[in-house]
Automatic annotation (TrEMBL), chain A:
Part of the ABC transporter complex CysAWTP (TC 3.A.1.6.1) involved in sulfate/thiosulfate import. Probably responsible for the translocation of the substrate across the membrane. Part of the ABC transporter complex (TC 3.A.1.6.1) involved in sulfate/thiosulfate import. Belongs to the binding-protein-dependent transport system permease family. CysTW subfamily. The complex is composed of two ATP-binding proteins (CysA), two transmembrane proteins (CysT and CysW) and a solute-binding protein (CysP). The keyword Membrane applies. This is Sulfate transport system permease protein CysT. The gene is cysT.
UniProtKB/TrEMBL annotation, chain B:
GO terms for cellular component: ATP-binding cassette (ABC) transporter complex. This is Sulfate ABC transporter ATP-binding protein. Residues 3-237 form the ABC transporter domain. InterPro entries: AAA+_ATPase, ABC_SmlMolc_Importer, ABC_transporter-like_ATP-bd, ABC_transporter-like_CS, CysA_C, Mo/tungstate-bd_C_term_dom, P-loop_NTPase, Sulph_transpt1. The keyword Membrane applies. It comes from Vreelandella nigrificans.
Amino acid sequence: MPVTLAKRRVIPGFGLTMGFTLLYMGLVFLIPVGAFLLYTTTMSWETFWNAISQRQVVASYKLSFGGSLIAATINLVFGGLVAWVLVRYKFPGKRMVDALVDLPFALPTAVAGIALVTLYASTGWVGQYLDIFGIRIAYTQLGVVIALTYIGLPFVVRTVQPVLEDLEAELEEASASLGADRLTTIRRVIFPALFPALLTGYALAFARALGEYGSVVFISGNLPFRTEITPLLIVAKAEQYDYHGAAAIGTVMLVAAFLMLLIINGLQWWASRRHG
Amino acid sequence: MSIEIDHVNKHFRDFVAVDNVSLTFRDGELTALLGPSGSGKTTLLRIIAGLEQPDTGRIRFHGEDTTDLHVSERGVGFVFQHYALFKHMTVFQNVAYGLTVRPRKTRPSKDEIKQKVMRLLELVQLDWTAHRYPHQLSGGQRQRIALARALAVEPKVLLLDEPFGALDAKVRAELRRWLRRLHDDIHVTSVFVTHDQEEALEVSDRVVVMNKGRVEQDGSPEDVYDHPANPFVYQFLGNVNLFHARVHDGIARIGDIQLPAPEFQGYKNEQGQAYVRPHEIEVFAGREHADALHAKIELVSVVGPTVRLELRTDNSEELIHAELTKHRFRALGLAQGGDAWIRPTYSRVFLPDERVSNG
Amino acid sequence: MTTPSTVIDTNDTIAKRWRRATEEPAWIRITLITIALTFLTLFLVLPLTVVLYGAFERGIGVWYAAVSDPDALSAIRLTLLIVAIVVPLNTLFGVAAAWSIAKFEFRGKSILISLIDMPFAISPVVVGLIFVILFGSQGWLGPWLSAHDMRIIFAVPGIIIVIAFGTLPFIARELIPLMQQQGKEEEEASLTLGANGWKTFWYVTLPNIKWGLIYGIILCNARAMGEFGAVAVVSGRIRGETNTMPLHIEVLYNEYMFTAAFAVSSLLTGLALVTIAIKSAVEWNEERRQRIAAA
């Protein structure tokens, strides 16, 4: 007579750790985010639509999305190049350069903000030379792009680097032995292998830039319609106790963030399938 | 301490890993669980250890039900395929671990632990590695340390999961002879999992052949090799040739060759398959026996002192594999591409309706 | 492996002309390295230098005066208090989440991992806003809170919770892949040897994840101390009360006290440098371990 046994796990602690994980996540962010979305639904559609479609707000979307897109593209090109150089070439101080790539991760955004504006202001170390050519960065949209590029810099490098390291040299040797020149090998063998990682890094950099606040507000100058990013408008509205306006724009940002998270997850799934 | 497995079942989603297995491992025996990958042998071993929970069925050690005992209280020694040595501990600390994590009341003193660990390290002939780390040892040495670590807690039973699976051929052969001698010294009831039939036959007192979650055969190594219970066991234990055969009144016929098949006494004109091992095929250069089958030698390969032939008979598409000594091969004067006559000297016939069932 | 040096010498002339199939010509390599380093200098090295230069430009005395100013000290104290609460909580969370995810199989695991990543994706400003709307004086629970004489927004509890939200994933994200990669064989071995769950965790799991955990804690700490956007929304910037270090830097900068702003910044910059140094050390250690394991 078969006896069915109660389900039990060999390694202990599942109930305890899973319970704490869910409780903590629930209290710190799942319930607050849920409550926030609920708050948005108490608004009438008209209020919501008016809040998110004001001309000043729409101008900020253009800057935030456009600027993030440009910054992520810059990072795609240069980040990919930095990853390549760090994995493939030897040069003095390489280990330090490699470590430094994480700086935007670890350095507070406010510090980065004042450093960038000091550097790129028309009197700054870099700004004064650009000024000669009539290029202004601080307090222009260019400044926003610079700050967003800075903040997204580690993402492409750090997603591409491990894939490049794992790429077997045999693949390239096989390609070369089959008669391909170096450029063909890079185009036909290396680039396709890196493509999912590049795309993931691009999406991560874009997502990070979209929500960035601290490093941008100093260098942007926050001129309405010109250099105001969307997160800045949220702060401004919250400070004026316009909670409906802030929540409506915040919801747009939140939905954009969820979409990006979904896309990134999809990309990572795709990359791991390609990789494995 | 005997181990009794009583109607154990285990499935993973829709895969049946262990299918209603009942077995008894006798006290002091060294048993091999032999089978191809996916046959459920490792799962069964992990169920005995308490690392997996059976869906139904009971496990008893010496008559005492241990099914609900947690792995940490079951008192088994488990040796993992990839050793699972603690990387951050020295060899000494690894072996001492099971003793040092005991509650204060039952924990031996530092000196006792030290003596015991050193004795075990001497037993596995690695006392000089006490202060090294696992990564400084070779694979074979790591496996011996893993064994010493398992023995330190004086387990009631010793369970080894593919203990030599990750080692190269030479170390493997040495280590399994060493395990046999060790078992003769310590006599703890032991079960080891392997997919290597040679290993199972050489080391164990008893072999349990598993396939698709079931036990195909359970017996002494000689028994299992000489009298396979069914076609699966026949094919799994070494190479085998298949011939069409007719069984009639205790006699099996392959072509004109007649071989005794006493288990089919009373059967009339049944069609079946005769299983013949390569070394049980006699090869002749000429037609010395009227009933021998004519064949062409398609390939000759010399492997050390043995010669393996691939032959094609006139009426079968399957190649026949035969094995003979290099000495005899030379004496016969055979050559690749030439003619030969073959004659099975022993066969075991299975009828098509015989189900692969046992246990 | 050692190759006799004579072999290298005789091959030297060939080595000069010969190029590996997996290599580019030298001039391309040098060009690419130059471009990459210029990019990194513009975006990483110069900002770092400008902070340190700005902080010490007018001498160590001015720097010291700036960081020992009462408002600065109170910002430092508040920041330390916050990390003393947030970092242990997030550490506990990271270890618990990694244990349950790496050592067990259960339905919805990948959803849970994605959820843990969520705070990364949400703009810090939105994080702050969420809590203002929940607990602010005009928010949902605001009236109830003020009736009971409690403040969360424009007070320390609000700052703590937004920072906990923002830095929640860091330690978990370090530990989950690490523990998944290590599998559970060593834990199983420990259990078969009679150890219970706690002992297995302390003696087997913890030593194996030690370095990843340390880096996770340091990174979480640096991010918690530097959190700006979310804190800017909920703190109200009350000097000496709810100003954290980054907010204090903003205030100083907006008041044109650049040297003081850079001086306080230099403290956080030092912390950031220590963080990435520890990350390199951890990675270097791991590489070495793998090299040894492979040998």
